[in-house]
User: Which sequence fits this backbone?
């Protein structure tokens, strides 16, 4: 007798009451199967999320390790930053060397504008000239009004490593809190470099803190662990870093951005592009590093304002 014959015979031989009990048993088995399947599915979902987060963490660690092996680099930075309702785009040629030396030359707008910052030199001030008449070089406070014009970040925060730090902090906070959506996928080719892309989306939110005596927004931002301009951007009643007073309530967003996209090169593991949107859904920042040369062997003259290839004419030490 075949298996089909046996199953058929069992069905024919059952009494009506036994048939009912058989259906009930089958239903219970089916329900148990669904429950088990649901449990396995939930476990699989948790495992998938954990696996995805582990992939992201590994990618960020690889990027940090690769960054540690880069001693100098040069290229072009294309940046877009939101000021009020205006998205300001700038293209800047640059050179960077450890421990912290930066040379920048603006291509557009402000063509010809140059700046040099060397940590620990020139009283930690930025040497710069505007590239247009009257073209007198000056020394500026990196956080001062002139140096910060059309900039979310001071020159002291320039470079690939800083961009990686900001992205990593935002992503790891999301992993730790578990209240944001994270994805990792193929990022396509970015300026000739195949990339991975990490996406983060979070709900708008944050908390209020009270400003302390003699504290400006830079100091408050450092105290609460958030970027100064992010806080400034989300407090319409504050006009600038110095425009707060003791006892004032200041809103601090939970995340650097409500949505972010971070692109890491598959060959170099450098984070070569980052875009973020504010808590109102507007594009807040976009940074792209192009024509990137890693470890080209930059020299002291590359960060010397007396370099004949540069256009610094006079340093006013006021």
Assistant:
């Amino acid at each position: 007798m075949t298996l089909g014959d046996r199953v058929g015979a069992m069905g024919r031989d059952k009494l009506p009451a036994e048939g009912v009990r058989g259906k009930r048993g089958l239903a219970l088995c089916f329900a148990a199967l669904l429950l088990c399947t649901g449990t396995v599915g939930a476990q699989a979902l948790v495992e998938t999320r954990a696996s995805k987060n582990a992939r992201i963490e590994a990618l960020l660690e690889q990027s940090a390790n690769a960054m540690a092996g880069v001693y100098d680099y040069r290229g072009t930075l294309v940046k877009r930053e939101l000021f009020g309702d205006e998205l300001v785009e700038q293209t800047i040629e640059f050179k960077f060397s450890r421990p912290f030396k930066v040379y920048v030359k603006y291509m557009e707008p402000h063509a010809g504008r140059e700046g040099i910052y060397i940590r620990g030199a020139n009283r930690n001030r930025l040497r710069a000239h505007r590239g247009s008449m009257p073209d007198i070089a000056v020394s500026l406070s990196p956080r001062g009004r002139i140096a910060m014009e059309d900039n979310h970040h001071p020159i002291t925060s320039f470079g690939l490593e800083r961009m990686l730090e900001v992205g990593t902090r935002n992503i790891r906070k999301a992993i730790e809190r578990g209240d944001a959506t994270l994805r990792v996928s193929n990022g396509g080719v970015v300026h000739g470099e195949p990339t991975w892309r990490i996406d983060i989306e979070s709900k708008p939110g944050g908390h209020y803190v009270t400003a302390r005596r003699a504290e400006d927004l830079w100091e408050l931002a450092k105290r609460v662990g958030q970027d100064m301009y992010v806080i400034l951007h989300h407090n319409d009643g504050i006009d600038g870093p110095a425009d707060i007073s003791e006892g004032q309530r200041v809103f601090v967003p939970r995340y650097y951005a409500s949505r972010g996209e971070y692109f890491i090169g598959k060959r170099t593991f450098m984070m070569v592009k980052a875009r973020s949107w504010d808590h109102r859904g507007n594009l807040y920042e976009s940074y792209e590093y192009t024509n990137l040369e890693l470890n080209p062997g930059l020299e002291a003259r590359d960060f010397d304002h007396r370099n004949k290839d540069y256009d610094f004419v006079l340093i006013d030490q006021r």
